[in-house]
Amino acid sequence: MVRKMGVRHGAICGALTLALLAAPAAADRLIDGKAAAELGDYETAVAIWTPLAEANDPRAETYLGIMYDNGYGVPQDREAAFRWFERAADRGYAKAQYHLGFMYHHGRGVQRSQSEALRWYHSAAAQGDPAAQYNLGRMYTHGLAVPRDLVEAHMWMALASRDRTSIRPLATRDQRALERRMSEAEVELAVERAENWRPG
């Protein structure tokens, strides 16, 4: 049965577009898969992306991970999703690192580990992935695998709130909530850190 995309992975089309623009020479088949996915033809998307993923394209690996994680065009298999995300994440692909962090965070297809979630969110956030920045901010807010640090949390929320996807209102809301718990000096420090931050 073909499943519809949920909110968390509904951004796949936007992520695909940005990733494909970065590498036009290798993007034709990835674009074909994107077009199929946008039409709800997930089986075709999977068929297009599988050989690319098997040839070590980290974008295709990540898209396949999303498909397996949600059961889009394939039987849902979160262990397989984890393996595809891990392959791409190990080569430094930020979107895969975010998804790998999410799986560790929630114990999807792997034993739950907040320290591993933190590691992968941080790797993706450092490259500018807004979803990872948001989740990293939440980890600092709640002291998950790190000491609670509202200044650091605010900085990551501020960075995530620059994004123009569904992450923005969540990050803005949480940023404002943090400010109600912070001193004026702490807010100023967090704002300064965000202004001086550069992807690394």
Give a written overview of the molecule:
By secondary structure, this protein is mainly α. It folds into two domains: 6-93, no CATH class; 113-200, no CATH class. It is built from eleven helices and no strands. It has helices at residues 12-22, 28-38, 42-54, 58-70, 78-90, 94-106, 114-126, 130-142, 150-160, 167-179, 184-196. The protein is elongated and about 55 Å long. Mean pLDDT is 90; it is low at 1-11 and 17-23.
Descriptive keywords:
2 domains; mainly alpha; 0% strand; 200 residues
Secondary-structure topology with pairs:
Blueprint: H1 12-22, H2 28-38, H3 42-54, H4 58-70, H5 78-90, H6 94-106, H7 114-126, H8 130-142, H9 150-160, H10 167-179, H11 184-196
Helix pairs in contact: 1-2, 2-3, 3-4, 4-5, 5-6, 6-7, 7-8, 8-9, 8-10, 9-10, 9-11
Report the average pLDDT across residues: 90
C-alpha end-to-end distance: 41 Å
- Which stretches of 5+ consecutive residues score pLDDT under 50? 1-11, 17-23
Number of strands: 0
Shape: elongated
Q: If helices are DSSP runs of H or I spanning 4 or more residues, what is the number of helices? A: 11
**What Rg, in angstroms, do the CA atoms define?**
17 Å
Largest sheet, described in full?
A: none
Question: What would you call the structural class?
Answer: mainly alpha
Domain unit count? 2
- What is the helix fraction of residues, given as a range? 55-70%
Along the chain, the helix and strand elements come as: HHHHHHHHHHH
Percent of sequence in beta strands: under 5%
